[in-house]
Amino acid sequence: MATQVGDVHEDAARRVAVPARSGARPIPQASAARLSRYLQVLGDLTTRTVSSADLARRAGVTSATLRKDLSFVGPCGTPGVGYEVEALIGQVSQVLGVHRRYRVALAGVGHLGQALAGYPGFTGRGLTIAALFDADPERIGGTVAGLQVHDIADVATVCRAADVAIGVIATPAGAAQQVAEALVDAGIRSILNFAPAALDLPADVQVRRVDLALELQMLAFHETHREPAGSAGGAVVVRR
Amino acid sequence: MATQVGDVHEDAARRVAVPARSGARPIPQASAARLSRYLQVLGDLTTRTVSSADLARRAGVTSATLRKDLSFVGPCGTPGVGYEVEALIGQVSQVLGVHRRYRVALAGVGHLGQALAGYPGFTGRGLTIAALFDADPERIGGTVAGLQVHDIADVATVCRAADVAIGVIATPAGAAQQVAEALVDAGIRSILNFAPAALDLPADVQVRRVDLALELQMLAFHETHREPAGSAGGAVVVRR
DNA sequence: GGTTGTGAATGTTTTCACAGCT
DNA sequence: AGCTGTGAAAACATTCACAACC
Q1: What does the CA dihedral B117, B119, B120, B123 come to, rounded to 10 degrees?
Q2: Which of A55, A148, B17, B200: CA 20 to 30 A from A49?
Q3: Same domain for B91 and B195?
Q4: pLDDT of A16-27, one tens digit each?
Q5: Given A104, A211, A233, which is nearest B15 (Cβ)?
Q6: Bridge partner residues of B149 (DSSP)
């Protein structure tokens, strides 16, 4: 796309607007992300019921936010009592689609890739690492976390055979775009990118990006702009 | 409870409201995060100037967003021409506080920890990995990425000696809370948490959390709720 | 011609506050 | 009394659209 008509339509981003039948409600992006976290916290609980205040504290959000989030799941608590843990896990899982399993391809088996391959939290969340790829001949053919490492050149064949739906890029930045294109060619339309590079892909491919350095820099930014002690609210101000 | 500034707008308590002297403007959280990204992209540029449209495309945002973000930095472009790369890098760096160096302690030297320790992008962004810790006797005393691995029990001593300001937790979930408390005891007030656990810390400690499984699950969520082909807008709908 | 900088408009997310249920 | 569920308000963020400028 080479649209250069002012600012109009540069990015065919995702618009979430919904006709929605009666009884159906769209779940905001932000709420969906937190629901996943509640699920995680709920799993560690040992009590039979839990209040919004308690669950919220454990998840690191306010109780108002939590109740609003759960309102998208549907009525699932008992006024005066709280939420039944077991039942809530079931309902949230249902909404997040955890019952559905997705097979994941992981490109790049360096330290980060191996950390991901060995990550324990995937299975319980509907995710299965199904294929590993690398470009390094030293690593190709070896096994990591019980899986064989394939040549990145075989992405299309292997991914189609393994019915992969989601791709993860844990390669160096220089290889990211090329690998991403190969994944898309293999029919993958959801990509998680750990490489510090922006990917240029068709609009219907969903890309999430995790930038490790960026997260640290955000901490540094706040450290720099920490309010002078005594002030009530945190402030981020710059003189021009 | 500590301020949990998560990836996807999950924030319990951030007040950015400021009397602010004339000429000063608060930088929104979201803009600050993107500014860091622009800085990264600018570094890869070889041209002398760049337009908002071009820079935006490389960073994966719209040009309107980019110009708005840069407006917080101050007027820094030339109408009809664009931004001078060199100068822009300087101004954005200034605002983000990249000139100031922060020393980082990394707890947990498993695959993820080693990936972080070896990450090339830190130095250029004002960050220095200054100390490594682990609880495994096998790893203590060894070296990773040219740094000695200390016993996690020595966090306080080593961190104070090394003047560490930021802590990173890359341990298993079970150890996270304990390690976090040790870091706080060592005087650290900014923590990046990779363990899939919520940290309960004093309110003045800033915590950012990166949950690898959550990022994947968000992709899966969208995959599940992909619009039926033919419909124009993407919709996320759940029946109740 | 082309591009920036920004007020205004729109869209999204969080917080408030309270009716209504147990 | 205690707690949920939710409409309404507030805060926050993005996008539009255009005047001002080169």
Answers
A1: -50
A2: B200
A3: no
A4: 433 334 446 899
A5: A233
A6: B132
